[in-house]
Design brief:
Blueprint lengths: L1 H30 L5 H17 L1 H15 L1 H19 L5 H4 L2 H29 L7 H29 L3 H7 L1 H18 L6 H8 L7 H31 L2 H7 L9 H29 L1 H23 L4 H17 L4 H8 L5 H18 L1 H12 L3 H19 L14 H4 L11
């Protein structure tokens, strides 16, 4: 089950991130060139952010059907949708070939990716955590989490390889397309593995007791609207900071020939791929630590580490030394791992069993909008307006501080029973100062 979850989420996030990397490197030139260099870059990053606006739709749909009909069927549908959309991006004509239709089609396919991503995460999380022993939920729940850095590692690695095999104009002509077309093969592999996974035991117990909620979304917002917002804010800081690389901003910043760094694509992509490996490592460590000291304490440590790592990030990137750039990114991944590894278990323990899929999916989707959706666009706009990366660091620090405060408002529910027999206990609000939902 863990292996299937890792493979499935890795493929999903490879698809999602390969788009973001391409947006930072070539989409501005290929799809938005008439807008001019600076504006084209911002528009390219906007297409990354637009998909986040449709994540809640995916989360609503997946949450509704996942709480009523099971986690497994939703995961199969989201995997297929993501794969088809990503493969079609690799076949798109550019603006030079078909004019305004090119960016319109690109945005449409990115929206489909957003709907898929909005539904994928909640199902993968619950399949992992609801299968886990009580004292190993953090480690089991890390399986969908490590799919994110693994997807980033794979996306950056394949893009770096294509930058070598198709250097210069060849990369813009056809090299960028290969990673998108590769998605079709990866989806077939992911589908083959995922279809053999058994349904979540918690959902099977719910179905056996005939206690499925008919309108889980309505129930969620009627009783737990405040919790959804707090949970979303807990994720927002990690999402905003993480999307400096996963959203393609730092790749664009470091490779811009008119910028302060001017590195070539290959070394930058390799540095990002290396930081994805350290992110994977610290995600696993953070998950394991959370099983020992609790989710809340692990998060608080992570926020402090993340805030500290923001200070040297751009000075190290600005040296123009790819190894120092890697060090800056790797330092950032320590805090990112400690505030991402425990997230699956944290979210699963916040919501009652009957509406859990809806709760975790929608909280994650809203947190992604508040945090990462437009973080690369905001960073590009701040840089354009102020001419300094200090403004970007201040923005990211504010986002991390908001998430730290949101974490402080939660009680630690590490180890709470997850089955439907304990719905009354689960319905007691985890927000400090609040009683039953």
């Amino acid at each position: 089950m863990v292996f299937a979850t890792v493979v499935g989420t890795t493929v999903e996030w490879y698809d999602f991130f390969v788009y973001a990397v391409a947006a930072g490197l070539v989409f501005g030139e290929l799809f938005f060139k008439p807008a001019g260099p600076g504006v084209a870059t911002i528009l390219s990053f906007l297409t990354v952010g637009i998909s986040f606006l449709f994540r809640p739709l995916g989360a609503f749909l997946a949450g509704h059907y996942g709480d009523r009909y099971g986690r497994r069927v939703v995961l199969m549908v989201t995997l297929a949708l993501m794969g088809v959309a990503t493969t079609l991006v690799g076949l798109l004509p550019t603006y030079a070939a078909i004019g305004i239709a090119a960016p319109i089609l690109l945005i449409t396919l990115r929206i489909l990716q957003g709907i898929s991503a909005g539904g994928e995460w909640g199902g993968a999380v619950l399949m992992a955590v609801e299968h886990a022993p009580d004292r190993k939920r953090g480690v089991f729940g890390a399986s969908p989490q490590v799919g994110v850095p693994l997807g980033m590692l794979l996306a950056s690695g394949v893009m770096a390889l294509m930058a070598v095999l198709a250097p210069g104009d060849s990369f813009e002509t056809w090299g960028w397309r290969i990673p998108f077309l590769l998605s079709f093969v990866l989806i077939l592999i992911g589908h083959f593995i995922r279809r053999r996974v058994e349904e979540s035991p918690v959902f099977l117990e719910i179905a056996e007791r005939r206690e499925e909620t008919k309108t889980p979304i309505v129930e969620l917002f009627r009783k737990h609207a405040g919790l959804v917002l707090v949970a979303a804010l807990v994720f927002a800081g990690n999402s905003a900071v993480g999307y400096m690389t996963t959203g393609g901003y730092l790749q664009s910043y470091a490779t811009n020939p008119d910028g302060p760094v001017g590195l070539s694509r290959g070394p930058v992509l390799l540095a990002v791929a290396g930081s994805a490996a350290t992110w994977l490592l610290f995600t696993l460590i953070g998950a394991r630590v959370s099983d020992r000291i609790g989710r809340r304490s692990t998060y608080l440590i992570g926020w402090v580490l993340l805030l500290a790592a923001l200070l040297p990030l751009f000075p190290l990137v600005d040296t123009g030394n790819v190894w120092l750039m890697f060090c800056g990114l790797a330092l950032l991944t320590v805090g990112l791992g400690f505030t991402y590894g425990p997230q699956a278990a944290l979210y699963a323990e916040l919501f009652p069993a009957s509406i859990r899929f809806s709760g975790v999916s929608i909280s994650y989707a809203i947190g992604a909008i508040i945090g990462g959706a437009f973080a690369p666009t905001i960073a590009a706009a701040l840089m354009r307006a102020t001419g300094t990366t200090t403004s970007i660091v201040i923005y990211l620090a504010i986002m991390a501080a908001i998430s730290l405060v949101a974490t402080l408002t939660l009680r630690d529910r590490t180890g709470i029973p997850l089955g439907p027999a304990h719905e009354a206990q689960q319905s007691i609000s985890p927000i400090r100062g609040m009683a039953r939902a």
